[in-house]
Amino acid sequence: MREVLIVAGMALVTYATRYTMIAALGRKAALPGRPEGRSLLRAWLRYVPPAVLAALIVPPVVAPQGQVAVGVPLWATLVAAVIAWRTRNVFWTILVGMSVLWVLRGLGV
Amino acid sequence: MRDFRRGLLATLPLAPGVIAFGLLYGMMARQIGLNPWGAWAMSLIVHAGSAQFTALSMWQASGAIPIVLTTLVVNLRHLLMGASIAPYLRGLPSAWKALLALWMSDESYALAIAEYRHGAGGRCYFFGANVGIYLAWSSSGLLGALLGAAIPDPRRIGLDLVFPLAFLGLLSTLLDDRVGVGVALASGALALAGMFLLPGKWYVIVAGLVGSALGVLLEKAEERCVKS
């Protein structure tokens, strides 16, 4: 019974976090005008994706064990960043980053 | 249908990472005493990796309410993701919005928002990406729970790096001007500092909020420079 309650509760709050803003800002009345129109809210929303993605990238790469460590994951990511910048391609970024990681580890760096 | 398939296929580079962690989740769920079907049910109806791992770590020592509240906090970052993708969902029937929200993960959100920003996004692409991650996560969770025994920790072979690398690839497609680059650098630094100063996953929320607000300020400053 406890298990069912926990899983149901987790599902409920998780869905709430996913749906709330989509429901609130996904209405026409919430953001009137054309999608490319200018407003403070729109300007802010435009910078949320790069901000969130950067926040998901940096900590696990720079401090994989919870402390800042200049190690193999960081080097692999820096090489991958060059690839990302040149190719703008997710597949190549992952492939090159993981290859560098495994080669450096194989070399015992 | 073509867009659905495109979204589904776009999740393939991420699948090894998702599956490795799904297997690990299933195995850990067994170790703390959940039966395989309970472990699977959580992956099927919660579908939130970091929240599920956090719940497992609290399972034996905490009550139901602290676990549910922690799940809420871990997932608050979805508010930011939902807010930024909402403008692209305007005009969709409510049922579609409810459906797209259901399986929105970090990974499928990142894929979908990048596609929307390039003008190539749509509900079918978004849904395809959601389904791809959902299938990988839920099936590997069940498999891990059934196998139970010693599944190697994906972190030992470095598979956890797949996620930041994927986000990096997607981020690169979003950075079309200096303000965007500034926002990304500032948010990354804020997240790193926040990881040491704030509990749990608050650093994603704080860096996301402050970083994007900084973007608005930088944009205004740049406009003023151009005008004067």
Q: Determine the most extensive contact between two protein chains.
A: A-B, 76 and 95 residues
Compute the average pLDDT of chain B: 93
Arithmetic mean of pLDDT of chain A: 91
Give the CA-based shape of chain B: globular
Query: Please, how many helices of chain B?
Result: 12
Oligomer type: heterodimer
Q: State the end-to-end distance of chain B.
A: 50 Å
| Low-confidence residue ranges of chain A | none
- Tell me the series of helices and strands of chain B, N- to C-terminal: HHHHHHHHHHHH
Q: Into which percent range does the helicity of residues of chain A fall?
A: over 70%
Q: Rg of chain A, please?
A: 20 Å
- Shape call of chain A: flat
Q: Helix proportion of residues of chain B, in percent?
A: over 70%
Order of helices and strands of chain A: HHHH
Derived structural class of chain B: mainly alpha
C-alpha Rg of chain B, in Å?
19 Å
Any low-confidence stretches of chain B, pLDDT <50, length ≥5? none
Write down how many β-strands of chain B occur, each being a DSSP E stretch of 2 or more residues. Answer: 0
The count of strands of chain A amounts to 0
**Percent in strands of chain A:** under 5%
Distance between the termini of chain A: 50 Å
Task: State the gist of this model.
Chain A contains 4 helices and no strands. Chain A has helices spanning 2-25, 40-62, 72-87, 90-106. Chain B has helices at residues 2-10, 15-31, 36-45, 49-58, 64-74, 77-85, 94-102, 106-117, 123-147, 162-174, 178-197, 202-227.
Helix-strand layout with pairing:
The complex is a heterodimer of chains A (109) and B (228).
Chain A: H1 2-25, H2 40-62, H3 72-87, H4 90-106
Helix pairs in contact in A: 3-4
Chain B: H1 2-10, H2 15-31, H3 36-45, H4 49-58, H5 64-74, H6 77-85, H7 94-102, H8 106-117, H9 123-147, H10 162-174, H11 178-197, H12 202-227
Characterise this structure:
The complex is a heterodimer of chains A (109) and B (228). Helices cover 73% and strands 0% of the residues of chain A. Chain A is built from 4 helices and no strands. Chain A has helices at residues 2-25, 40-62, 72-87, 90-106. The model of chain B has no long low-confidence stretch (mean pLDDT 93). Chain B has helices at residues 2-10, 15-31, 36-45, 49-58, 64-74, 77-85, 94-102, 106-117, 123-147, 162-174, 178-197, 202-227. By secondary structure, chain B is mostly helical.
